[in-house]
Automatic annotation (TrEMBL):
Designated name of the protein: Periplasmic chaperone for outer membrane proteins Skp
Domain of life: Bacteria
Coiled-coil segments: 107-135
UniProt cross-references to InterPro entries, sorted A to Z: Chaperone_Skp (IPR005632), Skp_dom_sf (IPR024930)
Record organism: Succiniclasticum ruminis DSM 9236
Signal sequence coordinates: none
SMART domains the UniProt entry points to: OmpH
GO terms of molecular function: unfolded protein binding
Amino acid sequence: MRWLLIIFTGLALMLSACSKIGSGEKIAVVNWEKVLQEHPQHARLQKLKDDYGLLLDKRREQEIIGKTQMSSLAKLYQLKRNSKQNFLSADFFTRMTEKQTAEQQKLKQLSDQLADQVDKELAAEEKKLEEHYQLRLFNLRLKLDTVRMVPEDRKKVESELKAARADRDRDRMLLMQHKMGLVNQRMQPHIDAMRQRLDAYARQLQGQMMEEMKKGTDDPLLQKAPGVLKELLGTIDEELDKRQQGIETLETSIKKETESIVIKLAKERGYSIVFHKYRTNVAADDVTGDVISGLKKLGARAEAAEALNKKTAGSSTGK
């Protein structure tokens, strides 16, 4: 029995123990790509590949659309959050201004009350000061109006009157500063209390603002979008895997049937080696047409068997 070596796509399908080409060996060549294209199932295989490519394009398109929609949704959500934050910030400023105005009005009323109280407490001292300078100033003005004096003496009395007025103004200022000091001293605890109330109110408003902002952090659409896209793409991926398996199964079947015809033809004609493409340094018979004829016969038998099955199935259904 002669051994057979068939070489496909640069690799050898070993059907013999011999790998050397002798001078008496019969050699054949087959255009492998052409016979595969002539296989009865090639059109179906190409249709499966085209459908796979279309589904793959659809998957890529869906992914781009989904990510674009999620990006737009995230931007819209952030815009809504920024608008809400701006509104809450303006509301915070308005409320704090109203609170500060009310507190300052209370302090003003309290300051006026304390000033009146201090005026009453220092009324006697103020009256004593005025009486002290009143008699002194009266005597000096009277002296200037009624006594005839030489210019030097008049200047001297005028200087004394001016100095007395300056002393009176100084003592008045000191007394006023003393009053203001007493009012400020008594106001300080109330000012500190007001600041504490404002700080507490600010913290209260900030807490409310944070709670309001938290209410918008769990956007249902934004949270569900990645899961929905993943589920959609997962469904498409499952379909792609099924179609890929179908393509690989059909490709394997086509190659095996074609190889079977080549092997049968080689055995019938006594070829020991069959190349899948021409070798310039090897004389070989081209059996491409014969292999294609064998594939057509195989296809015809498959069609006849399918028609018979349909006829048998139809008869069974009619009964």
